[in-house]
Design goal:
- The strands form 2 sheets. The protein has a 7-stranded mixed beta sheet, sandwiched between helices. It has a 3-stranded parallel beta sheet with strand order 7-6-8, sandwiched between helices.
- Helix 3 packs across helix 4 and helix 7 crosses helix 14.
- It has 2 domains: 202 residues, Rossmann fold (3-Layer(aba) Sandwich); 181 residues, Phosphofructokinase domain (Rossmann fold, 3-Layer(aba) Sandwich), CATH 3.40.50.460.
- It is elongated and about 80 Å long.
- The chain has 458 residues and is an alpha/beta fold.
- It has 14 helices and 10 strands.
Length: 458
Amino acid sequence: MKGFDVNPVVDGDVLFVASGGRCPGKQRILEAIYARVSAVSAKTGKPIRLWTTRGGMSLLHEGDASCMTLVTEANIKVSSPADAPICSFGTSGPSGRKEEWIPIVHLLLSRGIRYFIQWGGDYSTASTLGLIEAIEEVVAGGGERLYFCCLLKSVDNDVSGLKDYHQTIGFSSAVATMAQNFRRLAFDAQDSESYLQMRFVQGNQVGHLCSEAARLAGVPMYLIPEFFRGGQQVTRSFLRDIILGSWLKGAIASTPRYHSFIPIAEGMINVLDGDDWEGLKEARDAAAAKSSVATEGAKAKDFSFDHQLYEAIEEAFAALNLRNHRKIKVRMTAADNIARGSNTNEIDQNLAQLHSGVAVDSVLSGGSGLMVVGTGLRAEALNIADVLPGGLEDIVPRPVNVEDRGVQQHWAQYSAYRLLRQDLTGSSLSRMAKVIGCSEEAFVVRFQPVADWGDQFS
């Protein structure tokens, strides 16, 4: 950061907009930008004000500036959920076409806005490539220049083009909240003794949130799309048998384990066999017709993923030969927006402070078309066009690196919770085959693909 030596290149106000889906950190970013703008204003003697919007870019996209509110010491604080916020998210806004941005640029300039900071994810950030073109056209026509910079947010931490060590604001807070939720559900399943609990976790394309939260919580098994590689298409029976195989291995242990808790990333939808899951093809077609952007694919709510998996597992457990008339109770729940509305932890507070400072300094110094990236105590402003050269069509959500040391250590540490090739021999094989009521040969044929999957990193 340039410290307080920043001298604004032009007179004018700053606008902060929270675009896209909800994410922890908005309030901290707003407060950080306000403090930074106020400090520069006091230092330079220039009357720079900060504005924000309710509903993100949605009303501005319609040519309505009534959503804009001047940020002041009196209205910036939010003390309880009962307070009406001066800044809120909006999922509708301009696409990457400059024609949609040009009226917005004129609208903002007419309101005295010369600096624009947006906090958004992949789609929102890539869309501003159209803003770059719009600004140049406005300037070429004799208009004033708008300077803008993007801050990155994502509950999924999947923004395209970023390196493994880069972190988006809000992700750490979402992980901490989800991990706490996982631990509570895992202990509930353990205390219940005969509960199989599954938790669907947001993450439309990838498994960052599910993976990080599960490992932080000490949950031994979780399912993310990155664990199914090479174009593998996952059928209901295969996913069912991965879960059943894990349970069977625990049930025949020297100290039997009849419970289980398994988080499942929503992004698993992308590796499911469309011919095997009812309604999946239709959901994918509908999503493709709605948007050509990869991050806008089919979601769990678009078809009955949870219900179909629940029925398959219920049927499998009902057929088991269990002693003492033991009945396994299957529960399946969705995390929904638990992580989105979480409080901001210290890591994200520091990221918000640092990245917001870089964004403010960059635009006030005359930078534009930038996005702030970094991790820890490092942050820098990069050209959006360099990171996302293909714009919206180039968006490819950043997947979990399954070769990462933390992922590999967890996989190896909890091998007792996956069916492995070595389990398909000897007494383990005969005992598990007896529980499901089939021959050893039939058990091997059925569960060999599951064991191969369980040993994939060996």
